[in-house]
Amino acid sequence: MPDSHAHAADLSFLRELPLARAAVDFASERHAGQRRAADGAEFILHPIEVAALLERAHYPDHVVAAAVLHDVLEDTDAERAELEARFGLEVADLVALVSDDVTIEDEERRKDEVRERVRRAGGFASAVYAADKISKVRELRGLIHAGLDVSQAEAKLERHRRSLAMLDSAIPGSRLVETLRFEIEALDRLPPATERADDASDGG
Question: Count of CB atoms within 10 A of residue 41's CB?
């Protein structure tokens, strides 16, 4: 099977974005071996999807690069100083702004803290955060289909609702915010079946 890491930076939306292409190479290496829980795809698909949302909303190269890198401080051994040296201060600052503080053990407090930090920062940080939430709500649909516990699913969805409320005031009218609103409403009103329910209905 071909090495997908070698080809991720060749995606068409990255052609005119040299910094984001370099970020894909870096993030692919650091996230190597990690998989998405929703579908088992390589984890790098998530930050690339976030980056694509921002590129299509016409954000500049350094913001798209930060989107590609937005999970490396949380989920890999990469350090902020390394990001600054490779990609510049603007990118490193953006990645740090949208990264969870891993020293906060309680998950709800950790998510609340980063949401408030992004609210205060506004600007490009809000855009990266919004695109991340769009991708995460789409992943949540897959997790629910795969049988995620109802209480866990509702806790995640409630977090996304709080994020939407924050973004509504931080970047009102943004195309990203409206896309996030749609994804949350669609999940509420047109939820997926679970695999267990599918299995039961296939029994006849």
Answer: 14
